[in-house]
Design brief:
The chain is mainly α and 143 residues long. The protein is 73% helix and 4% strand. The chain has a single domain, classed as 3 helical TM bundles of succinate and fumarate reductases. It is built from 5 helices and 2 strands. The chain has a two-stranded antiparallel sheet with strand order 1-2.
């Protein structure tokens, strides 16, 4: 059987001449940009949110089960590692929310200029961090 990848690497340049080209942009060719890094982080935060939601389900199930089960979960979540995970889950939630809003703007055709996608990426990072700190400060003051 003939290797089809070779045929896929042949293309035409803007003048119409045949050229060999890579199958896809490669990390060795392109420098990572803010959109690249935010895309990777967006996917990672989606996975992190799924894991954090399992912790939330555990907490709710324990609350519905018994006082002893709830106390156990509260002890785990109230520990230093538990609070760090909860903080990271909050950060992932706000980052995913802000970056999702950015993607919605892209879906309607806004924000594709170089300066716009850079500044919107920086805004996502700043707003997500600010919302996380704000939520934790409010949570600590209320609780």
């Amino acid at each position: 059987m003939k290797d089809m990848r070779e045929a896929l690497m042949v293309g035409r340049n803007s003048e119409g001449r045949l050229v060999r080209r890579p199958l896809s942009p490669h990390l060795q060719i392109y420098r990572p940009q803010i959109t690249t890094m935010l895309s990777v982080v967006h996917r990672a935060t989606g996975i992190g949110l799924a894991g954090g939601t399992l912790l939330l389900v555990w907490w709710l199930a324990a609350a519905a089960t018994s006082d002893a089960a709830f106390a156990t979960v509260q002890a785990v979540i109230g520990s230093i590692p538990g609070l760090v995970l909860l903080f990271l889950w909050t950060l992932a939630l706000f980052f995913h929310l802000c970056n999702g809003a950015r993607h919605l703007l892209w879906d309607v055709g806004l924000g594709f200029e170089k300066g716009q996608y850079r500044s919107s990426g920086q805004a996502v990072i700043i707003v997500a961090g600010g919302l996380t700190v704000f939520a934790w400060v409010v949570g600590l003051l209320m609780g």
